[in-house]
């Protein structure tokens, strides 16, 4: 069974440095209004980045297998936090934006659906605590 371990080290004030099993490092911090220096990624927002990154990796991999060509691709993830502590995302939206000429919308939708429904483990984790909504937008040139 696969597992991951990360090490997170306090640097100063409210700033931490965390690693990834690949060895890459990221700074975590909070806003100045919460006592930090705003010099790193916020933990909750980083979860949204993980969701988009996970699904994005799936989609790009599937595009290669399905021979889908696009000019550009971006995702916008947003989350609504609960009012009470501990605050967590109760609703999350992940929007997929595809740019290109003569986009094959059917194949692109199939690739996105496979990520959403089958491959993206982070998406499945989010479903355990949040209502996850997705939408696909095509921007044909």
UniProtKB/TrEMBL annotation:
Signal peptide annotation: none
Top-level taxon: Bacteria
One matching Pfam family: OsmC
PANTHER family: PROTEIN YHFA
Name this protein carries in UniProt: OsmC family protein
């Amino acid at each position: 069974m696969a597992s991951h371990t990360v090490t997170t080290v306090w640097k100063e004030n409210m700033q931490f440095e965390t690693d990834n099993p690949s060895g890459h490092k990221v700074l975590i911090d909070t806003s100045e209004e919460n006592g930090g220096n705003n010099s790193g990624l916020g933990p909750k927002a980083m979860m949204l980045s993980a969701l988009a990154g996970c699904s994005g990796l799936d989609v790009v991999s599937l595009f290669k297998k399905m021979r889908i060509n696009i000019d550009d691709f971006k995702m916008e993830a947003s989350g609504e936090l609960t009012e009470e502590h501990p605050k967590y995302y109760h609703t999350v939206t992940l929007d997929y934006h595809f740019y290109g000429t003569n986009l094959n919308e059917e194949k692109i939708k199939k690739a996105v659906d496979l990520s959403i429904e089958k491959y993206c483990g982070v998406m499945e984790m989010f479903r355990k605590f949040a209502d996850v909504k997705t939408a696909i937008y095509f921007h044909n040139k």
